[in-house]
Amino acid sequence: MNEVIIPERTRVSPAPTVAWTPLGENAILIMSACDAIPGKVPVAVDGNPRNKVETMALTWRRPQAEPAQAVGFLCLAPAPSPDRGSGAILLGRPGRPLRLILAPKPMPLQAFLAALADEAGQAFPTVVDGLLEVLLAGKSNPRRLRAVGMLLQSVAKPGGFVEVMGPLDDGIFVQGWTANFAAGRTKLLVAHGGLSPAVLEAGTFERDDLGEGARGFFGLLEECAVRHPSEIERLFFRATDGWRALEVYERHVVLEQITVPGHLRDGLQRGTAPAATTEKLKQASQRFDGRDTISFLDQPVRAGIDDATIVEGTGVLIIGWLFDPDRLTGDVVLRSGTQSCTIDKTWTRAVRPDVTAAFAEDPRFGPAMASRRNSHGFIVFAPKLLPEPGQPLYLEFEVEGHGPAFLPLAPGRNPARRALERVFGLLDPRSSTATAVVEKQIAPALQAAEIAPPKVIETHDIGRFNADAAMGLVIGLDHRQRELSSLFALLAIDPEIRPLPIVVAAPGESFDRLGAEARRLARFYGLHVRLVLVEGVEDTCDALEAGVRACRFQTVALLSGAAQIRMPGWLGRLERAYRGRGGHCVASPTLLFEDNSIRWAGAWLEGEGAGRRVYNRFVGYPLDAIGSLGPMEVAAGATECCVMSRNAFLEVDGFSRSYFTTGEKGLDLCLKLRMNGVPSLWVPEVEIYVVEDGEIRPHVGALISLADRTSFDRRWALAISNMRG
Questions:
Q1: In the listed set 114, 143, 172, which residue is the last one of a domain according to the structure?
Q2: CA-CA distance, 440 to 140, in Å (whole number)?
């Protein structure tokens, strides 16, 4: 009968006290001696025979010891319970169990291993080798891996050097020499402050500068926690004669990632490896190395880039062309470092007769173009792909019969709005392509953009400006030339405005001109003005937002720089309508074009369900069309001129920056306020002119309006379909 049984109750002689060290929370390592012990033994913890596991005992002979202590052994055991444990370990053996008492305090790991080396003597390397197998077979934890690292430092023999390293996406290229492993797949342990497992796929090659039996090696470290070669201290591997260490050569070379594929190609040309490893290394060698390779293919496939722009904080916008009449190209992927985006699934194709003409006379490509369409162009926005400093940006084309081909990009950098507005000038608004580009590329890009809010640079006060007044006027100016003299004169002759504090917010770039004029006029008319210099202004909404944040008025009257006052008393009437609703609304006047036709006279909800929309009902009508109506609630107000609570403005985080035009920004703000319980009120009797922006070309304006409407519908269509009113 071979089964070893630990009896339920056993009388034993006094137990010896043994050294131990913890390995993580659930295991300990113990060292002791006895007369004999098998290779595998059951171990009971805290003297409880019902709580037992099987462990492996690593042994060595002790020639000078008494027979009862002739065999030294080392084994893993479960950690005793910290609160009620007895500190007793019971090892089952044929004949009788072995009872051990743990020392009151554990030994530090390093001291424990030093004591083991003294005790085991010449058998230490063999014992450690077995212990490493046991430790690596179990579930890893930091303390266990630390023990493995210390053991390897003690027993691993020199195995060669790593002389060259370089990062490559999710792996690390290594090159050096060794005499202790063959080409193919080798399991390693990587020392990098800690210790972690990895796999080396390597080939070998002959070197004249090495001794007999040593060869050069090259390959890729994979499945590795290390992300950069500079972290690697040494590599441990199991050779036929035990553990070996590849040291990192003191004068090692760290390659730029872009040069690693070339080193792999060189290694494959002069070295050998098993077929599976060769194929894996060959695939890695075909990665981008900085060269344009698509322009030199034998296949009729070519590509070019007209413009590539990194849209700050947002992604990459690319305008280019792909000539592929035989449709040999599969996936087209934009890459930078470990980031990637497959762009051919989302790009918008465009007709490019210039590309067709360029290749029509080339005998290599002309025959392939017969009866083919010429929509070779593409425009695409790759969201959230932002190259890290030093990382190249490139396109990878999977070409049938060739594998990957590459086209490096030299992108510029631009703020989101400026980068996207450039595209409008390249499009024909009458084409379906323009509509598709706006809806699928431009609008999503602007919605995804993380545009920094306008920032107040500095302020200058003229007169007795009271930032904490119950009510104040905020005027927002953009980069366009504005005539301040008539505006200040109209403010000064209005008795309801003259005593109010006035904030004038303008772009910092325009402030030298505007600031001096505003100071002179404010002093001349005796107005109380705060001049606010603002960074990041793209339109009057940005300036208005910065102005609101640069004061502490309870109630703010907003006046866009595009607005022109038509009559005195306008602000008083707006304020009275606002107070008539308990100061809980956005009160807006009628807005007029310069010919006295209606620009805005309330925004209304029309339609039902998914077809429901916000509609500017009276636009283009003569002013007489609205008659003598009184104030009435509407779906949304007009932020070119309005009165509202400053706190309400701030609670909805002001204007959204995900639109090109101020009209859509204002509509978005009023709907946010409506959703937050603040309705909009139209006050028909108050009339304000709003000057058209003549700087935007008509066809560009149509595309910008389409982009804003698309963005608005993406954000608000569902909410509007469920609104009442």
A1: 143
A2: 49
Inform me whether the pLDDT recorded for 12 exceeds 50: no
Domain termination site, one of 421, 448, 475? 448
CB 141 within 8 A of CB 109: no
The answer to whether 310 and 389 have CB atoms below 8 angstroms apart is no
Alpha helices per DSSP H over 228-337: 260-270, 275-285
- The answer on 504 and 386 residing in a single domain is no
Claim to verify: residue 471 and residue 425 sit in the same structural domain: no
Name 560's Cβ contacts closer than 8 Å, sequence gap at least 6: 475, 476, 540, 541, 544, 639, 640, 641, 662, 690
Amino acid identity at 681? L
Could you tell me which residue, 153 or 457, shows the higher pLDDT?
457
Phi, then psi, of 19 in degrees rounded to 5: -75, 150
Residues 343 and 327 in one domain: yes
**Residue 276 phi, psi dihedral angles, 5° rounding:** -65, -40
| pLDDT interval class at 567 (50, 70, 90) | confident
Per-residue pLDDT tens for 570-591? 999 999 999 999 999 999 999 9
Written as six digits, the tokens of 256 are 């730029």
> How many Cβ atoms sit within 10 Å of the Cβ of residue 527?
23
Query: ∠479-485-487 over CA atoms, to 5°?
Result: 75
Q: Could you tell me if 365 and 374 are in contact, meaning their C-beta atoms sit under 8 angstroms apart?
A: no
Nearest to 473 by CA among 411, 537, 551: 551
pTM: predicted TM-score of the whole model, two decimal places: 0.70
Pairing of β 315-323 and β 377-383: antiparallel
Q: Please list the alpha-helical segments (H only) found in 82-193.
A: 109-120, 124-137, 142-155
> In angstroms, rounded to a whole number, what is the distance separating the alpha carbons of residues 559 and 491?
12
Contact 423, 442 (CB under 8 A): yes
Q: CA-to-CA distance for 268 and 270, rounded, in angstroms?
A: 6
Tens digit of each residue's pLDDT (9 = 90 or more) over 128-164 = 888 888 888 767 777 777 778 878 887 788 999 999 9
Residue 213 neighbours by CB distance under 10 Å:
8
CA atoms within 13 Å, Cβ hemisphere of 452: 11
Whole domain around residue 177: which residue ranges?
156-285
Q: Which residues share a beta bridge with 144?
A: none
Do 227 and 310 fall into the same domain?
no
pLDDT value at residue 1 = 39
The whole-angstrom separation of Cα 142 and Cα 109 is 13
DSSP code of residue 122 = G
Chain centroid to Cα 470, Å, comes to: 44
Strand, coil or helix: 63: coil
The number of distinct structural domains making up the chain is 4
* Contact by Cβ (8 Å): 602, 682: yes
Q: Where are the alpha helices (DSSP H) in 256-386?
A: 260-270, 275-285, 353-360
Cα separation of 675 and 715, whole Å? 13
Residues 228 and 319 in one domain: no
Q: Provide the sign of the torsion angle of the four alpha carbons 644, 646, 648, 651, taken in this order.
A: positive
Residue tagged 């990895």 (tokens): 198
Give yes or no for a contact between 160 and 174, defined as CB atoms under 8 angstroms apart: no
